[in-house]
User: Fold these one by one.
Assistant:
Number 1:
Amino acid sequence: MRAQFVLSEIGVGLRRNLTMTFAVIVSVALSLALFGGSLLLREQVSSMKGYWYDKANVSIFLCNKSEAQSGGSCAKGAVTEEQKKQIKADLDNMNIVKQVDYESAEDAYKHYQEEFRKAPIAGAVTPDQMQESFRIKLKDPTKYDVITSAFAQRPGVQQVQDQKQVLEPLFNLLNGMNYGALGVMALMLVVALTLIVNTVRVSAFSRRRETGIMRLVGASSFYIQIPFIMEAAVAGLLGGALACVMLVCGQHFLVNNWLAHHIDVIQFIGWGSVLAKLPMVLAVGLLMPALAAFAALWKYLKV
């Protein structure tokens, strides 16, 4: 009988405040969708870092005749065979180096033509303009500075370049987008909590006669509060379910059916990551409004 009464009161409260309940559902859905999206974006960035940092090399570009004529670090002339042998020997003796590959000017020119064959400037580049280089795979990518300090000032070396540094701006941009999504989520969360508190108080005020009668017959504060807390929890759960639908649709339509076909250099996270976040989104959608309603009613309906 008590359970039937509580359920009937929940239905009455949701129908009486239909407009505000709808606003709560939408605001909770948007905030939780941003919350789940930010978690997925963070996981995507971590996955991309692990993938690309593992493939990133440290490159030692050697001076050629063109670079020697332009001065700078190659002012002493093009690299000699003796200098190349010494650089290779020193790299092989370093315990932080996992693998060393030599790329000749001809190989560099071939790779350049394959990568930029459609670019107008591709035909203007000649093999003698390309640089020889050593491509180094480190056991620990964070030890790039050791290679720089050891080889940057060597005769015959034009520059030492860490490909990981080229990727940093992209990851910083993605992290910035993630923080922006978290900021919008926090704002939407404040809006949702405010709506929940106001909806619960309006509902409690509209039923002050019923709650007064319940006080007179000896009902406890918690028993009086249960219908209002459950109303907020149901609205929040519906908002969480809507957020889950938005995340699933985003994965299916935006990621799998669009981004994955247009950006093939990124390994996007799969359904496993998305499905793992859905229970968390539902749990937050259920608990957050319920706790907000409990806090709002603590003094208002206290016997």
Number 2:
Amino acid sequence: MQLTPEELISEFHDAVMELYFARKRIARLEAENAELKARLEAAETKSGTDPAA
């Protein structure tokens, strides 16, 4: 299947937009992960459990 130049541009634009939103989601998930790790470490420290064990 061959695409016209307009179709190629449209496909490229769609891919760029998907990448943009995927990167935003990754950033949100990384922030959430860091927060959860900090909460877990705080809870383990408070309970006297060694988080490295």
